[in-house]
Amino acid sequence: MQNSDIDLVNIQFQLNGKPIRLSVRPFDSALAVIRDEIGLTGTKEGCGIGECGACTILVDGKAITACLMLAPQLDGREVQTIEGVAEGDTLHPVQQALLAHGAVQCGFCTPGMVMSAKGLLEANSHPTREEIADALAGNLCRCTGYVQIVDAIEELAGSPRANEAVKR
Amino acid sequence: MRSRFRYYRPTSLSEALDFLALHGTDTAIVAGGTDLMISARSGDLQCKYVLDVSRLNELRPVAMSDGLLAIGSAVTHAEIAAHPVTRDVAPVLAKAASCVGSTQIRNMGTIGGNIANASPAADTIPPLMVHNAKIVVKSASGERVEYLGDFVRGPYVTILKPGELITHVLLEPMMSGYRHSFQRIARRRALSIARMNVAALGLVDGNGVIQDLRLSVGSVTPRPCRMTVAEDVLTSNKPDKKVFWEAAEKVSHEMVRWSGIRPTTEYKKPAVEGLVYRALADLFLSEG
Amino acid sequence: MSLGVVRSQAIGTSIERRGTRARLRGDTHFAADLNIAGVVTAVVLRSDRPHALIREFDPAAAKSTPGYLGVFTWRDIPGRNRFGIINKDQELLVERKVRCVGDPVALVVAETEEAAQRALSKIRVVYEDLPAVFDPEEALTDAAPRIHEKGNLLGRRVVRRGSPEEALKHSDVVVERTYTTSFVEHAYLEPDAGLAYIDHNDILVVHASTQNPHYDQKDVADLLGLPEDRVRIIQEATGGGFGSKLDLNVQGFVGLAAFLVQRPVRMVYSREEAFLATAKRHPLKIRYKSGANRDGRLTAVDVTIIGDTGAYASYGLAVTSRAAVHATGPYEVPNVSVEAIFAYTNNPMAGAMRGFGVPQMAFAHESQMDLLAAELGLSPLEIRRRNALRIGSQTATGQYLTASVGIGATLDAVASRWEEARVEKQSTRAFVRRGVGIASMIYGIGNTGMQNPSTAQVELGRDGFVTLYSGAADIGQGSSTVLVQIAAEALGLKPDAIRSVIADTAHTTSAGATSASRQTYISGNAVLDAATKLHNVILTEAAMMLKADRGDLELRDGSVFLRSDPGKGVSFKDIAERASRTGLPLKWQGYFDPDTTPLDPETGQGRPYATYAFATHVAEVEVDSLSGEVRVLKVTAAHDVGRAINPLNVQGQIYSGVAMGLGLALMEEFHPGVTESLKDYHIATAADMPAVIPIIVEDPEPTGPFGAKGVGEPALIPTAPAIANAVADALSARVYNLPMNLERVLKAGISVRSAEKEKSCQGY
Ligand SMILES: Cc1cc2nc3c(=O)[nH]c(=O)nc-3n(C[C@H](O)[C@H](O)[C@H](O)COP(=O)(O)OP(=O)(O)OC[C@H]3O[C@@H](n4cnc5c(N)ncnc54)[C@H](O)[C@@H]3O)c2cc1C
Ligand code: FES
Ligand code: FES
């Protein structure tokens, strides 16, 4: 209706392992397209300005905030959203670890958190506790206080538990 | 309400420059989008076109050329922080890049965007200043090279003209024997714009005398500059806490000289002194 | 009648939180994720003035916007344009004047969000500005502009006991200080959202992010002039609330819009709108005078609390009372004078936020305890031990504590870490000082001195499965899981075997609000009551079917077995079938209302709560006197929760509280008219978190479900004061204002810094 005066941009990319083609409005964010056009609502909007990480997705394996990406910038990329993380009924190890540590409360930050953790472990399979906290610092969580989240990823990464120690 | 615009993604630099030659006044350049998307969301961004330079290979090198380190404008903070070359010859910049925002912001945000946005708090600017960085700007009609201190005219203001884009920055590599420090103050330990930041490079000769000292401080002057008044205090002296404080006070005088006394000065004056001291102590003393 | 033995071990087990898998997969729908055919969008035109009369309102230009469906004002509200959880002082759409920036002026409905925003931008409003007042003390002067017709005083609560003036006069030491705190934003991760439509039965259905579905139902029905049973509220997965989603935020707007345009309507706040339009934590100014004798015992306190509730009351009165009642902290104080006065201003509304004023009060009383300790030459741990409430103590309101007073146990639990940390705290770098602080708290579970019952149903279905019906909104804290654990324990079932129907006003009865840390204790008891009744019926039937003695029966995994002959038993399914033939009811209602009495209006004496939670935190910090930066290294947090029904949940609440307490201590400050979003409002990130050592202390509460009390709010309360005391320890100077931001800490640390600087300039 109101799109008549807009030059739509045709894009195609890999979404959760499958090719997808669509026409997008050039000024929409990747987040708006993923949620509203494609209908994958697992990716959340908590701020729209890059400050909360709820919209984190992986683009070519790297964690980015979809609210700060223009929809046409998805073109040609390999994109993964939370919906593409578990394999059928089997949770991804990151998801399993978070489950086992009770690291999910309201769950609004959770999809973004999973994506960031996944992005971290793909780049660095043995991060230290500090590296984990740093890598997840772009994902705000108001419920959990992060401890169980970092515990979960730390255990998954197989590095020694450091929570007991006062870090310097 | 979101800004509306058309999107164009050139496949080569020359295509980009041609586009800018035609539509420069109506075009905003986007690289990582971490600044631009904020103003697009609020509707503040007013332009007909957005030109996406993020994938131009010409803007993505990190390499030594003619004795200088060239970093393409579309290189991301994450890449600068991790790249072996930057870590080797510009570690203070690599450190600063690793302090920007969050993982996500570092994966998207670029050095060219950081410079062009010209925020007084930009984390890459003080390190670039101590590397005597030059900005290489191209347009369809040619190229110009400007020192960063001349390129940025004030908060969020540069001399970039319509039709131009930044292709890369050129840094003098850090020579062997130099020490470096990047320090910042922020309201939390991540995901926080710097309240102020400091980059320093220093060289001590065989007699323990400071031979070269370069210092730049963010968020205290309207334009990026080197704190030569403080550098002068330090060069030809031995690293000594007393001298550090003297230099730190020079910096705070400089800040007040530029900006006058403001409500924030009550904090910023002692804080900038403290931060400069911290950088110098980090530079020269194994123990503060 | 005695109950049978049960085998379930559902209590004290960290079972998986309900709904977690779906959340991890991104499959859970929050309100903003809902989509139904034909849904349209509503947005609110909000005031940009703090106090003004609406002189003209002209929506004509909006009407030509493509996709436009309607602009509505208060005149379009069919029912009563008044709402509010305690005081009905809020208008869904303002009638005559706006009282704060963000006040709702008109509701715009259009096919899409964009069209709605476009139409909104074309509405012309002419305001006549009125003088505004932003300081609560000023608001109470005669010259102040009147914000509400009844005046600017929201309420006052006095607590008086003994003769405080006299006692202070004769105390060995007296310390008096003034403390202030800021507006604080809840910053739940999910901005408010809702979707409403009218169903095939002509019932208005509102799906919403909420903490309080049954209250929403009442207020929405009133606004629309509908009987309550014509409005159904369904709580969708809720992305945190922390008190702010107790208020009616989007629910009234989507309900009204759906009612007026007869289309499904949704509304999703942007983060900016959530910041602008929802409640904040009350900033308090606390003048605190306390006295003690050489023996280290408190003699008296004299406290004045000034609260700013902003333009509307919300939960302001609850905060007034709770702040006053908790002013003495977890200590025996024989002589007490507390006066809390809360005023309206033209600031944004302040309401409920995790702790209802107690986190602010704890900052004051715990700072005072350290100041007294210093005066008396006692260690901060010791002065707390000497004054801690114990069984037999009387609280400031004259209530005798008879059980589950775990404050002493929490002090003992942190004592070894406290001592070690004091030894370890050698400064690590020059200018960077380590400090250790301790702080304790008391928190009354449930609403203050008033009825606040909960109800629940537990039903045995014909298929042999048990279903729990509870109106308690789970906002992430895990009440749905804990309530199921309680029902499971009472019925000898595995929690997995219980189905639940939660927070849907069509299928559940009121459990009251998810607030005041009350759901485990109060709704837990209601569930236990219902489950116990069902247990009884099952037992009676089974006894009949097995021709056995009730005392010989055991409920286990959905069957009843004979203890004397474990091979013999009947399944719940068989029992259900028989009961349905005989017409025996298998759905039972549970009810619980804590045993409280109203507080005396003159003296504040009474029994405000049936039980109290206690906690002590030890914080270890590093303070950089060069920059004012504070790094929290470690928090050791001991909590008396009565009984941890789900220990992992309790730990999760403790970590959560520490994070929020750290924010309150160091970085969270909302400046009305300035703070817009998460870019200028900072909450702790993963990188800010210290090591946290949670210690669960279990001093069972006899009236609690399996001994449980609550932990949601207590988790947060001691953190900020413990950090404040640690910073004071590090700098030998104290900050009296929260947050202890860079500026305040640098200023407080200036003498440490000067001394260090002196040293460094004198050479080596
Ligand atoms: C949550 C968050 C946290 C942040 N934290 C920090 C921080 O800690 N420190 C910090 O310094 N910054 C921070 N920023 C700001 C931002 O990320 C940086 O400035 C970043 O480097 C901008 O790069 P970009 O590629 O994303 O720029 P874009 O948004 O793409 O562009 C920014 C501006 O530069 C122009 N531009 C981009 N590339 C070119 C070019 N090649 N030639 C000419 N003009 C160009 C654009 O037209 C635009 O005006 C933060 C931003 C966000 C959203
Ligand atoms: S919604 Fe993208 S970072 Fe918050
Ligand atoms: S679990 Fe609620 S925000 Fe993270």
Short description:
Chain B is of the alpha+beta class and 288 residues long. Chain B has helices at residues 13-23, 36-42, 77-82, 84-89, 91-99, 103-108, 111-117, 125-130, 148-151, 228-234, 241-259, 265-284; strands spanning 6-8, 27-30, 49-52, 62-65, 68-72, 134-139, 142-147, 152-154, 157-158, 165-171, 179-185, 196-204, 210-218.
Radius of gyration based on Cα positions of chain A? 17 Å
Query: What is the total number of structural domains of chain A?
Result: 2
CATH fold node name of the largest domain in chain C: Aldehyde Oxidoreductase, domain 3
Query: Which percent bin holds the helix content of chain A?
Result: 25-40%
Summarize the helix and strand pattern of chain A as letters: EEHEEEHHHH
pLDDT below 50 for ≥5 consecutive residues: which ranges of chain A? Answer: 159-168
The biggest sheet of chain A, with number of strands, parallel, antiparallel or mixed sense and barrel status, is:
5 strands, mixed
User: How much of the polypeptide of chain A forms β-strand, as a percent range?
Assistant: 5-15%
**Tally of domains of chain C:** 4
The general outline of chain C is globular
Which percent range describes the beta-strand content of chain C? 15-25%
Kindly provide the name of the CATH class of the largest domain in chain A. Answer: Alpha Beta
Broad structural category of chain A: alpha+beta
Low-confidence runs of chain C: none
CATH superfamily caption of the largest domain in chain C = Aldehyde oxidase/xanthine dehydrogenase, a/b hammerhead
Bound molecules: flavin-adenine dinucleotide, FE2/S2 (inorganic) cluster
Straight-line distance between termini of chain C: 82 Å
Task: List the chains of the largest interface with their residue counts.
Answer: A-C, 63 and 68 residues
Total helical elements of chain A: 5
Helix and strand layout, with pairings?
The complex is a heterotrimer of chains A (168), B (288) and C (764).
Chain A: E1 9-15, E2 18-24, H1 30-37, E3 56-59, E4 62-65, E5 78-80, H2 93-100, H3 110-123, H4 129-135, H5 147-157
Parallel strand pairs in A: 1-5
Antiparallel strand pairs in A: 1-2, 3-4, 3-5
Chain B: E1 6-8, H1 13-23, E2 27-30, H2 36-42, E3 49-52, E4 62-65, E5 68-72, H3 77-82, H4 84-89, H5 91-99, H6 103-108, H7 111-117, H8 125-130, E6 134-139, E7 142-147, H9 148-151, E8 152-154, E9 157-158, E10 165-171, E11 179-185, E12 196-204, E13 210-218, H10 228-234, H11 241-259, H12 265-284
Parallel strand pairs in B: 1-3, 2-3
Antiparallel strand pairs in B: 4-5, 5-10, 6-7, 6-10, 8-9, 11-12, 12-13
Helix pairs in contact in B: 10-11, 11-12
Chain C: E1 5-7, H1 20-25, E2 40-46, E3 52-58, E4 68-72, E5 97-98, E6 104-110, H2 113-121, E7 124-129, H3 136-139, E8 153-161, H4 164-169, E9 173-180, E10 184-185, E11 193-198, E12 204-208, H5 213-224, E13 231-235, H6 251-261, E14 265-268, H7 271-277, E15 280-281, E16 284-292, E17 298-310, H8 316-325, E18 335-344, H9 358-376, H10 380-387, H11 407-424, E19 432-444, E20 454-460, E21 466-470, H12 479-491, E22 498-502, H13 519-546, E23 553-556, E24 559-562, E25 569-571, H14 572-582, E26 587-592, E27 612-624, E28 630-640, H15 647-666, E29 691-697, H16 719-731, H17 742-748, H18 750-761
